[in-house]
Amino acid sequence: MDTLSTRSSKRVRSIAWSFLAGIIATTLLPADADPQKNQRLSINPMTILAQAASAALPHRTSILVMGVDNAAVSGSQKGRTRSDTTILCTLDPVNRKISVVSIPRDSRVAIPGHGFGKVNSAYAYGGPALAMKTISTAFNVPVDHYVVVNTVAMKKVLDVIGPLEVDVERRMHYTDNSGKLRIDLKAGRQQLSPAQVEQYIRFRQSPQADIGRIGRQQKVLKIAFKKVSDPAFSLTRLPQLISTAGQVIKTDMPFDKVSRIALFGLSLNESDMKMASLPGHPENIRRVSYWIVNRPQAKVLLSDAQI
Description:
The chain is 45% helix and 24% strand. By secondary structure, it is α+β, with helices and mostly antiparallel strands. It has two domains: 1-55, no CATH class; 56-302, Aminopeptidase (3-Layer(aba) Sandwich), CATH 3.40.630.190. The chain has a six-stranded mixed beta sheet, with helices on both faces. Strands 4-5 form a two-stranded antiparallel ribbon. The chain is globular, with a radius of gyration of 20 Å. It starts with 7 loop residues before the first helix and ends in a 5-residue tail after the last helix.
């Protein structure tokens, strides 16, 4: 097993990040938090360090991450729109890894109470709760929490992370009037601004369509994870990133759970993040285009021995 005790460089980084996470937790405590506890944590840095270092993720946790348009997050009603991106992120503290499995938006699944349809319709029918239930029952996997990110939230988070070096695989140029997005990127390795990163991950005019877009999303996610994990970033801009994310991202997780997950993620290396997409093939059924998931392969992928 690859543990911190056998990797001294990661142990040093983990201590630094643990201390930082404790400070962040203190500064972001709700206004109605216990003032005495808040004062004690502020005064005694070693107590912060000890508490943060011991706040390991207690068990395997699966989070359904959904990307939607602005109205779906800001509105008080259920979903009102389909989810544009669906990702099952599993954090495994025992094997010390994060597994990211993208679920193609056109995947044909049974949606409880609505029959068969595309997986992205579940959010429109019943919001995060139905989307979680759909993924859990369709693929027989636990889904503990959800995170919903709209386009405005994505832009704000990307602004904090800053430019990313990305190898753009092809010329990308078109205007998405419905999505109010103009994409204009040249091919080759280059520094992309946050606005250009958004263009890159939302580009869909390619032979692979949504599958190609999933690949670009995962590539950017890995590049961003590497940048955020760098102590040069985490020790200076991580508090701003967490604060921004907390303001614009919708989730059912309490703050202490988010803090533990953030701390766990920062203790890992880029190689500890494994990514995949549900395998399958495109097929038209009654004039509707679906992604037909290969169930046996998906079962292996989503099992405890996944990727």
